[in-house]
Amino acid sequence: MKTGDHSKPPLNEVEITRQQGQSESEQTVSSSNRGSSLTDAKNYVPAVHEFILALAAAPSTTDLLPVIAENLKLQTGALAAGVCSYSPSTRELVIRYIATDESNITSAQRLLGRQLIGFRLHLSPELEHRMLTEVIATPEDLSEMSFGFISKVIGKAIQKVLGVDELAGLSLHYQNELMGSVFLIMPQKRKLPALDILHVFAHIGAIALHRKNYEEALEESEKKWHLLYENLPGGSFMVNNQYIIEDVNDKLCGITGYQRQELIGQTCDIICPKGPHYCPIFDIGKQRIHNDETAVKTRNGELVPIIKSAIRLSFGDKEVIVENFQDITECKRAETEKIKLEEQLRQAQKIEAIGRLAGGIAHDFNNLLTAILGNVELLLVDFNKNDPRCGELKDIETAAIRAVTLTRQLLAFSRKQSIQPELINLNEFIGAMQKMLRRLISEDIQIITEFGKNLYHLETDPGQLVQIIMNLVVNASDAMPAGGKITIKTENIHLDQTAARKIPEARPGQYVCLSIADTGVGIDDHTQDHLFEPFFSTKELGQGTGLGLSVVYGIVKQHQGWINVFSEPTQGALFKIYLPAIIDISTLKPKPPVLIQNLRGNAERILFIEDDAAVRKLTKRALSENGYIVFVAEDAHNALTIFEAEKGNFDLVFSDVVLPDCDGLQLIDTLLRRKSSLKILLSSGYTDHKSQWQYVQQKGLPYLPKPYSLPALLEMVRKVLGQPQLDPS
Predict the structure, then answer these.
(1) How many CB atoms lie within 10 A of CB 592?
(2) Distance in angstroms (rounded) separating the CA atoms of residues 653 and 681
(3) Phi/psi of residue 143, each to 5°?
(4) For residue 644, is it within any domain?
(5) For residue 403, is pLDDT > 50?
(6) What is the DSSP letter of 303?
(7) Domain boundary residue among 327, 362, 394?
(8) What is the per-residue pLDDT for 8?
């Protein structure tokens, strides 16, 4: 009957068919004579058969100990049959179930003073060894059966109340593993079955428990394996040595787009691009592979890049491969982006290096051109206009001016040209240029303008803006030898953080976008990689300098803007130039008109510092011949010596920014501290970090870029001498 917390299992109430050849009398042995019949070994077969059937019929989820107890009570005719589980770690027997009448348990518990279910018996190593070696024990009383845990007095009292005559203990062990025990309590006048028969029952019960424990351990192991398999970080699948997929996890299904049932039983080529017979483990003989970069095939045929590891496992004579892989699509995308960014960085570094070289060359040329142009202008003043040598001087002057244009292009590319910005409306500016642009292109090319409404203003150098537009229009024309269309478009652009990230080199803000598109031959990827390099040209020898686009690039960068190019062969090209916009023009004051008059000096004293001898000689002559008293120095040291010798009696200090022994700005600061009323004029061939162009602009210091003409020199000197004095701080 039901005791403790366990449910009473089925007691074979349905008739079970006996083995063929058994008699009807053998099939109907009753519980009333089961004990006596089992004293005869020849009568044990039906009882053992029913015991086996009962254990075999028990559901896998059923606790087997109550089934053993109930069926032993039934087959032996015992008053009570109890079962204990055994814990090897604590060496404790614990009563789990007693098959008997409830009144018997109540009477025993009253005398014992405690619950029977859950009663624990601790075994010494000697007792544990005894139970492993002696399967059957027939103790004299309950005290001996409980290994002394129940006293003799209480044990005798229980036996008397229950009417117990004989006792037996059955050890349940298999392959030297003790799993529990069974105790039988026989009623008066009922004998125990033969010991051999009890031994058989104990052995069958032990085998059943061992199998049950094995199945539960196997089920637990499979649960752990499945849990691990499903939660591996990536897709996983198992394939046997016939290349058949035996299992997959959900993550693999998510990556490939297949359902689990669609993959299991299929050959591995359904997801492996190489298919069977190219397996590095089964076909090449490796034991495992680690972090192998390959791909997995999805349901729609796409290849997903993965990195996988796999290992060969053996189960008896069966071998399988367990593979686990990670989807590295995002890693590949990031790697591609990294390579692209690295290439952009290398390109920028290359252009920067070439720009420095170009700027250095242009700086030296500016000194030379200042001397050439200045001396030509002085000679032209001295010569009569009708002198035939004036024509030759004019040719020299023209060539020098062309050289000035070339150096300006180099400086624009290197972003070291000083700019003189003005407030410009790009729509009006392009409109005024259209006649000039028409003269630059052939008649079979059409220019279309699309001007944006309410266009923001730009603050830029007009000369540089002309260079940008002219270079791009001429390049577009050259790309259309059979004629075509050039579209010039302007528009206001607002870029937020999200939009700026989508455009190379972009930054958030307000911009004016100038787009120049053509319907020409287009630009291939290789050419685009070198498009803004100086002296790179796809034109025939003698048809281009290779500086046009590099100059555009330099000017745009100098204005804190950027260029994007979109083109494919035969599809034309689109250049989009973004320049920072001026939104509020009310705060910008218009430039006052320049009045070129009274350029001659009034004996003002000028200290001129210049390290280039030719420029120094020319400028001194030009200023001296036009009413100024000029002292010259080739470096800062000589300048300070002269200043001290003349006791600071100078009206103007005219200095190159970059001097061989000192920064020109440092020299100016030193002189201003000694005489705060000094007027200052600076000059340089370009505006790199050495010339501290940003500082010059911030301080509002007067600046005359090289090469300068004599009128420009005289006008700037006159202008500076008429300005208020500078704050020495």
Answers:
(1) 6
(2) 6
(3) -65, -45
(4) yes
(5) yes
(6) E
(7) 327
(8) 33
> In DSSP terms, which residues pair with 609 in a beta bridge?
633, 655
The CA-based dihedral angle spanning residues 20, 25, 28, 31, taken in that order and rounded to the nearest 10 degrees: -130
Is 512 a member of any domain? yes
Tell me which residue has tokens 């199945």.
215
CB atoms closer than 10 angstroms to residue 697: 13
For residue 405, the tally of other CB atoms under 10 A from its CB is 10
- Which stretches of 316-415 are assigned E, i.e. beta strand? 318-327
Structure tokens at 171: 């050890």
**Are 537 and 361 within 8 A, CB to CB?**
no
CB 285 within 8 A of CB 311: no
pLDDT tens digits, residue range 671-712?
Answer: 999 999 999 999 887 655 455 666 777 777 888 888 888 888
The answer for 676, left when phi > 0, alpha when psi is -120 to 50, beta otherwise, is alpha
Asked whether residue 586 is assigned to any structural domain, the reply reads no
Query: Residue 176 gets which letter from DSSP?
Result: T
Rounded to 5 degrees, what angle do the CA atoms 456, 574, 536 make?
110
Domain that holds residue 359: 338-414
CA dist 79 → 147, 199, 203, 369 (Å)? 21, 19, 22, 128
Question: How do residues 338-357 score in pLDDT, each as one tens digit?
Answer: 887 787 677 667 767 776 77
Q: Which residue do the tokens 């652009």 mark?
A: 493
Instruction: Give the relative orientation of helices 152-162 and 102-112 as an angle to the nearest 10 degrees.
Output: 160
Contact criterion met (CB below 8 Å) for 123 and 131: yes
Tell me the C-alpha distance between 424 and 428, whole Å. 8
Instruction: Please name every residue paired with 492 in a beta bridge, in sequence order, or none if there are none.
Output: 512
- Burial label for 237, CB within 10 Å (0-12, 13-18, 19+), is buried
Q: Is the dihedral of CA 592, 595, 596, 602 positive or negative?
A: negative
